[in-house]
Amino acid sequence: MNNPYFNEEHNILRDQIKKFVDKEIVPYGEAWEEQGYVPRELLKKMGEVGLFGLMHEEKYGGSGMDIRAATVLAEELAQSTFGGVTVTALVHTNMASPHLALAGSAAQKEKYLPSIVAGEKITAICVTEPSAGSDVAGMKTRAVRDGNEWVINGSKMFITNGVYGDIYFVAAKTDPNAKSSRGISIFIVEKGTPGFSVGRSLKKHGWKCSDTAELFFEDVRIPAENLLGEENKGFYSIMKNFQHERIVLSAMAVSEAQKAIDITIENVKNRNAFGGTLWDKGVIREKMARAQTKVSVAQNYLHYVSWLDSQGSECIKEVSMLKGFACDIANEVMYDCMQFHGGMGFMSESPIERMYRDSRVLPVGGGATEIMYVEVAKRM
Questions:
Q1: pLDDT digit string, tens, across residues 112-123
Q2: Which of 62, 91, 134, 257 has the fewest Cβ atoms surrounding its Cβ within 10 A?
Q3: pLDDT value at position 1?
Q4: pLDDT score for 133
Q5: CATH ID of 236-378, from 1.20.140.10, 3.30.420.10, 2.60.120.260, 3.10.28.10
Q6: Active-site residue among 33, 75, 76, 245?
Q7: How far apart are CA 193 and CA 217, in angstroms?
Q8: Is residue 51 within 8 Å of 73, Cβ to Cβ?
């Protein structure tokens, strides 16, 4: 069936990513889960085949496409069943590097973007702190101007790509007297800068092959030209990029839920119980039909919202509804799929066990579900 929100270019891209996932990710994901990070060799390959530059400018090695391309990327990576791989890539492509692409000077983009698009340098966005997650304005990290340098002090928590990243876009308060949502700026901090350190690699409930870190900044001195965008305008940059971050996380959620349904349908059609297969039981068929209906609705809305954004529409309400709905549906579907796997669904060798764990963070990351519906309510 033709999808009215995508064109032939997106279909070709989808086929390309599907083949890449089957060849380069699926056979190795289990080993990466054990080691706790995605190898740089894979990320370099992703850069080489153009997956890291879909939305970046062509002059820096990108393809200059819109959010629909990123939606396709997120959906197809999620089909691997390894959420940690998917989020490692998406943080780089749609959560961290866009800050440079949108707010960076010509010199900054020329210096960093080609290696980011090529997968030679991996990026991280450093906003979250122990007491400042969805409440971005509550951050405590400070940056003070000292001549031709900025001096950063503070810490960041739950930073994806924090251990093995190379370029960090760090949000910090630059005007402590400003109103809560103002006075925040973003800075480019490279790995190896004196005073910047990884406090610890964090052990997680899910996304185990995605490295996550606590970061410390102790009198970290960076050149004045490492200010990204306008001073004290970082909050608005963060809020603007949240739109695309929430779309790709929703795409990840919807696609993982669909994959869970596909795996579970195969399981219940082949699993014998009570004199027949589980699929013979009306309660199973009804439950799975309801799950498929919800996921299909979420997927169609995802594609519509991606298209809406690609048309230049301000769609904060729609994106917020999508993020809240899609991520909650993913968790609901994962619960039922794990239930229908019986005891095997509880075993770590089962993809459903991993997917069930991985999906739990989706209603938290990129803006908690509760915050999403607050944003919706503001616009009703």
A1: 999 999 999 999
A2: 134
A3: 61
A4: 67
A5: 1.20.140.10
A6: 245
A7: 10
A8: yes
Q: What's the pTM value of the predicted model, to 2 decimals?
A: 0.95
Task: Specify whether 245 is catalytic.
Answer: yes
Residues 6+ apart with CB under 8 A from 201: 36, 162, 163, 211, 212, 213
* 2 pLDDT higher than 70: yes
C-alpha 97/C-alpha 246 separation (Å) is: 15
For 30-81, what is each residue's pLDDT tens digit? Answer: 999 999 999 999 999 999 999 999 999 999 999 999 999 999 999 999 999 9
Fold of 124-231: Butyryl-CoA Dehydrogenase, subunit A; domain 2 (2.40.110)
CA distance 97 to 196: 20
Asked if 186 and 171 touch (Cβ cutoff 8 Å), the reply is: yes
Could you tell me which residues come within 8 angstroms of residue 200 by beta carbon, excluding any fewer than 6 positions away?
213, 214
| Element spanning 127, H or E | none
DSSP 37-88: S--HHHHHHHHHTTTT-TTS-GGGT-----HHHHHHHHHHHHTTS-HHHHHH
